[in-house]
Amino acid sequence: MAQAYVAVVVATLFFTIPEALTGIHILHDSISGAFGGARAPFIEPRMGIERTFGPFDHPILYGVFCASAFSLAYFVVAERRFSNLRGMAKVFGVGLATFMSASGGPYLVLMMQGFVALWERAFSRVQGRWAALFSLMALAYIAIDLFSTKTPFHVFVNNFTFSKQSAYNRILLFEYGTAEVARHPVFGIGLGDWERPAWMSDSMDNFWLVTAVRYGLPAFFLLVAMLLGLIWAAGQRKSLPTEWRRARHAWAFTLFGISVAAATVHLWNALFVLFFFLIGAGAWLQDARPGKTRLPLHTPPAVSRVRPQRLL
């Protein structure tokens, strides 16, 4: 699965590099023209390039799709070896494809995965390295809360978005969205509309907040518990083969990066499906046994060879 996923991401570069340079949305508009969809809307360029859609509805979605392949490329395809030039070239290709989206959310997914991969490489022989990492994150959160005039969420949004307007909009979305959760904490508002000023868009760029607003806090906590529970259970397994440990790192780091970025972007349509697909893609780590071969469901009966008798 990792090999196929990374190959698809790298293959999109044949379309998205020309798209970033020319502004012609090759994949998106070709698919829309063939199946009757709308053409790609105009979005302001960033950093001197057009923001690429690929085959998705928005550059953010394409960027998250590409960035989600980083850990799979590094740990599984490149086998965590810098000497594996072919594999590392695919890691670079994943980073380049993410860059083509020119979106802050995908860059954050890439940065989070890169950070934890670097941490794992630097402290691979240290026991309790993950507990230490989570402790440092908690201390950083407390320090920002104590010494900053803004909340940690405001600091996070202001520093990981491209424009002040986008950051301000996300802060307003968080304030009105959490107020909606406080009014409907158990069942949410369903598919109804949420209260906001008339000039605000109905788009809510926060997957976790959308989940709580639409389905209530129980759905939010159950989803988070499922995600953390699966990762924790997989992390408890000992004496796994090296290939399995690399796959476990890739899976956990991918989900970590998407989960952090989901606080600044909503995962909808294909990305919603991808997120749950990736959660389930590592479930085999819970109970699969190394070296155990699987027999086919219907084993054909053994055929005995009888030497024909010579006719007299």
What is the strand and helix layout of this fold?
Blueprint: H1 2-11, H2 13-22, H3 26-35, H4 59-67, H5 70-77, H6 85-100, H7 104-122, H8 129-147, H9 152-159, H10 164-183, H11 207-215, H12 217-235, H13 242-261, H14 270-281
Commentary on this structure:
The protein contains 14 helices and no strands. It is mostly helical. The longest helix has 20 residues, at 164-183. The model has no long low-confidence stretch (mean pLDDT 86).
- The backbone outline, from C-alpha atoms, is globular
Radius of gyration: 24 Å
Tally of helical segments: 14
- Measured by DSSP, the beta-strand proportion falls in under 5%
Distance between the termini: 61 Å
Quaternary structure state of the chains depicted: single chain
What is the helical fraction, as a range of percent? 55-70%
N-to-C order of helices and strands:
HHHHHHHHHHHHHH
Main pleated sheet: none
Low-pLDDT regions: none
Number of strands: 0
Structural class assignment: mainly alpha
What is the averaged pLDDT score?
Answer: 86
Keywords:
312 residues, 0% strand, mainly alpha
Short description:
This protein has 312 residues and is mostly helical. The chain has 14 helices and no strands. 31% of the residues are buried.
